[in-house]
Hints:
globular
Amino acid sequence: MHAALKYYATQGPLTGAGPHAALFERLPADIPALVKVIQGVMVHIFWAEAYGLQLSDVRKSEVNLRRVDLQLARLLELDPRPLSEARPPERRLVGNCRDFSVMMAAILRHQGVPARARCGFGTYFLPDHFEDHWVCEVWNAEQGRWVLVDAQLDAMMADVLKLDFDPLDTPRDRFIVGGQAWQWCREGKEDPQKFGIFDMHGMAFVAGDLMRDFLAFNKVEILPWDGGWGYITDQGYANIEDGSDYGPMDRLAALTLAGDTAFEEIRALYENDTNFHAPADLFSPQ
């Protein structure tokens, strides 16, 4: 456990603030206040109209910023003030659930707090549906447990969605991590067609989120549409969709559900198997 906590308390290749690290100084350490800071500098691309925004294609393209240092650079272009000063919606960085979660993990890691993004499915967006989603998992040292924090859910979203839980401690039956979703579908407990977003769903989609969750365990928080290598290729997804190659995902599900008890094995698999290892160009500036 100690090795895992130490690992997640430091930045990964995508979460470092680089020349903008000073922006993370003097930010609040308590989770409720930190979440409000993040909500004050970011706006979710799919909720923009609810904030009165009509996004241009240029603004929408901000969701392609994979690295936190590049996101911070764009934030400063939009508004040069400290992150602790909330921006009006039109001067917030456009992102999605992955970006809220990764930004939170980046700030907490800067503070030396173990944190990691988690990829899976939220049950609270649409009825009888598991929506593709990311949250941030934060180590609560006082309670000795990992806590799921949904940083994008501000008061407006909570009201629209009629939330019946605290998003700062999201129950694990409301946010379903990728490995749990995979096992439920494999065991016939849930219909894989209920998992996804828009017109994308099924076992291949669940496998994609599982792979993204595994990579996030290795501090590689890829964009939702990244792929084209290892098991996340058209052929890899086809093999999963037709049921011919479930083995690798079965292994990932077991490892990620074991969490920190499987930390060394998770790290070794990522480092030693190219099918599970992100290509170097993923970390380059874009």
